[in-house]
Amino acid sequence: MSRALVIISLLLFSNASAYADSLQSHGAQGLAYLKQKNYNAAITEFTKAITADHNSAESYTNRALAYVKADKLTDAISDATQAIEIDPKDAVALYLRGTIYYTLSDFDQAIVDFSQDIELNPKIAKGYLSRALCFLQENKSNEAVTDLTKVLELNPKYTRSFYNRAVAFYQLKQYDKAWADVHKAQALGVTVRPDFIEALKKVSP
User: Fold this and answer.
1) What CATH number does the domain containing 143 carry?
2) Sign of CA dihedral 89, 98, 73, 165
3) pLDDT tens profile 120-174
4) Is 99 exposed, middle or buried (0-12, 13-18, 19+ CB in 10 A)?
5) What does the pLDDT average to over 96-106?
6) Separation between Cα atoms, residue 60 and residue 76, nearest integer Å
7) Do residues 185 and 170 make contact, with C-beta atoms less than 8 angstroms apart?
8) Single residue among 70, 105, 140 that ends a domain in this structure
């Protein structure tokens, strides 16, 4: 599993764990197993919760997360999709599924999911950041610049966005802007890859 997916899944768990008090006993126990990194047991408990209530989007989302942690991404997509069908406003399921699609290099579908997450949470930076990374993969540089600029506006602590935006400017052949963002990133302690610096030097006047 990619490092990005691990980090994001941990973030999603921190969001999901807040629901424990309102879940049935199996759901609460499943979250406890997730925290203990006992993913198979968590899947079993969430399955029991789903059996008790087939219309619980929350239970499908939580089991999808457990599947991610167990590196069963196909099952995770299936459960996240089921959660979204039950509750189209399940932002956790949308963001999780988008992240899985990104990991599988299905950037078009990831963009769809991140865009829907942004519609639900327009003031949260992570959706814009994730969509920007998809745009970079597809060389949609203008869109990436727009999203990364929004990320920095919403949360200046996402300092690596300067580096990512420098890459987008490089793709757009706007080298002065790329250098400006590289310098900002370095000043904030972000490590910029030497090969990117060399590539930028080669095309700069």
Assistant:
1) 1.25.40.10
2) negative
3) 999 999 999 999 999 999 999 999 999 999 999 999 999 999 999 999 999 999 9
4) buried
5) 96
6) 9
7) no
8) 105
